[in-house]
Please model this.
Amino acid sequence: MAVEPRLAADDTGLLDALPIAAAIFTLNKGKLWIEAMNARFIDLAGCHGEPEVFADTFRHFASGEGGAFISAFLASPASARDEIEIADGDGVNRRFLKLKLSPLAASTSGVPRCLLSVVDRTIEVQAEHNLRAEMLRDSLTGLSNRLGFTEAIEQVRESGEGEHAVLVIDMLRFSRINESMGSMAGDELLITFARRLMLALRADDVLARTGGNEFGILVSLQGGVEDALAAAERIRQVVNAPFRLSDMEIRVECAVGVAVMQPDQDSEELFRNAQFAVKQAKLAGRPQVYEPTKATEARRRFSIETELRRALDRDELTLAYQPLINLKTAEVSGFEALARWNHEDRGEISPTEFIPVAEESGLILHLGRWVMDKAAATLAEWDRTAGEKLPLYVGVNLSAIQVARDNVAEVVESALKSSGLSGDRLTLELTESSIVQDPGRAQRVFDALKALGPTVAMDDFGTGYSSLAYLQRLPIDVLKIDKSFVADMMVDPDAVAIVRAILSLAEALGMSTTAEGIETVELATTLATLGCASGQGFYFAKPLEADAALEYWRSRRR
Model:
């Protein structure tokens, strides 16, 4: 619509008292008229009051969005919008204006009138844009940050143009470099690493720094997931050359995880999938593509962790007791206590599944204390039931996590005190990993345990990496021969040779031996002939409930 200015001196004087740009509009015979305007309005228009120039310069108020906005309000003030924001101009001359309408009394001829006030928000909007740009940018590398990267993914997803994938690159050993050379060297490495990554990109790929030493790349796929793997290979090639920091050359490796964008998948889920693939890449030593089945397994582990914490709080776990048989007399010399979990919904959950979860989450400390107390209490209850001190001991497994983080001697002492047992009624089974992780701490833990009187056994001997020096230095009483060697004895001469070597080593060091995984009478007889002191396995009995275990001891004694 064309604007036909018509100034009224009395209205202009009233408008000049307002602190903002303002004008009075009317709608007459389908045309918008400017009845009056103040000096601020004229300055905002840049027309210096000439009606014809004003009409051309400020036409957007009476045409397009602005004109329709004012016309609709004059036609029906009660139902129309009374406030909008419009953009005027392009490039550096672009302005952002806020328009507000207020109804006025109709003219003497009944023509509707309204007051238009205009606020120039250009500086404010530009400041907001600049602030948002800063929020989306990583200050060190100048790349997009995690938020900016997520928005880029969302824009691509909403466009629906072609297939895309996200690569997450984790720079390995960065913390060690940062700690040894200082944060400035670490920042320099990050900047150089980012520049190297840019060399591996195609024109339409998007690179971002999404974390401390983590980068993300959004790539388009013309040839499916192979394009993403090709990008991962280009990344490997560009970072393969050493990085020079000061007078040192450092070789940097990275783990790359790939997740392909799926329909109806939000940006956060896609990014998490790529991060999950990075964890798999660290284990595999090569780029990995996200696989839902592996993520399902990870979610199950987290679910088991939650359920295990509740089960421990509610005392829903039980102990089973596997007999340890003296291979010379065939009598039961003791029992190994084994944690069991029968979930009300999932059913029986294997220890091979929930024990690693307990170790990873730290719940092994709670679980270990419970097992120790429960096993000692059960043995004391057997004594009371029999009316005598039984010639039995109970074996309890100690995790390497417990040895590293808990006061194991205090745990054992508390269990002995509460049950009234003497220390020689317990056998504490530790794996080689509990020694290798921190030999000095292991020495102190072993010494503290031996002071309480229990037997100390090294479990799964021969499968770890401990040196013979540990056996000589640490107060170990029993070597438990791993079932992987025992199971193959009847078919593999090498397995027999290994078992013979362990038995000879134990004898030379004054240690006893226990064989695990005895499944047949032939294995039991062979081990006894070779001089193994005791054994356990399904040939003798599966793990038993407490009452059944006591009855089993009685039956073997008879």
